TrEMBL record:
Keywords: DNA-binding, Transcription, Transcription regulation
Gene3D superfamilies hit by this protein: GntR ligand-binding domain-like, Winged helix-like DNA-binding domain superfamily/Winged helix DNA-binding domain
Statement: the UniProt record of this protein carries the keyword Glycoprotein: no
SMART domains, per database record: FCD, HTH_GNTR
Keyword Signal attached: no
Name by which UniProt lists this protein: GntR family transcriptional regulator
Domain HTH gntR-type: 7-75
Amino acid sequence: MEALPRETIVDVLEERLREDILAGRHPAGSYLPPERQLADGYGVTRTTLKHAFGRLVQAGLLETRHGVGTKVLDYARLGGADLLPMLVRHDPKWVHEIFEVRRSIGALIAERAAARATRSQHAELRRLLEAVREAGDADAVQLADIEVHRALARATGNRVYALLTNTLFKAYLPVRAALRGPFTDAEAAHRRLLAVVDAVESGDGRRAHAAADAYLRDTERIMLEGLA
């Protein structure tokens, strides 16, 4: 059995700073206290603090300027979708907003896939759909289901749809274990997705849009029940 990675002091400090920023204890637009004061307050070295700052700069929460200080950025105005997993960990209510986007993007992807998918992509969808039915447990069914959606996004011929699909799945990874409700029954999960794949294969964009919308609303309802 592989040992779990140990949490480092930088990990702990990064999480504390992130929570303080997202909770508004360090408001957007404000400057953090001087490094020495902040390090003393958290009981860490300035080196540890700098490492944690570096991660939060990469995440889009902080901006450090030499000789000026470290500024808290307005993530809602300047941040990107890569912040979503962090925000979901901070507040699971973000999942509701993610699902709203998931519905609209997912239905549009199915519509575009119906118009553009090739025969080989139809075959790939069928193969991945069968993997949903053959998956052994809820976790495996959920992961197999995700691969069908990724294939639908690829079938649009637009790489941005594929990246958006990946982004949305990553966004709710922090609470994925609570969202397994629609995937506890492999046959039922297969049946739900079958309607979408059939519609895409028919080449009828409106039908595919409607089928995907129905699928996404149905699975969203079940997942939110589990999250509650």
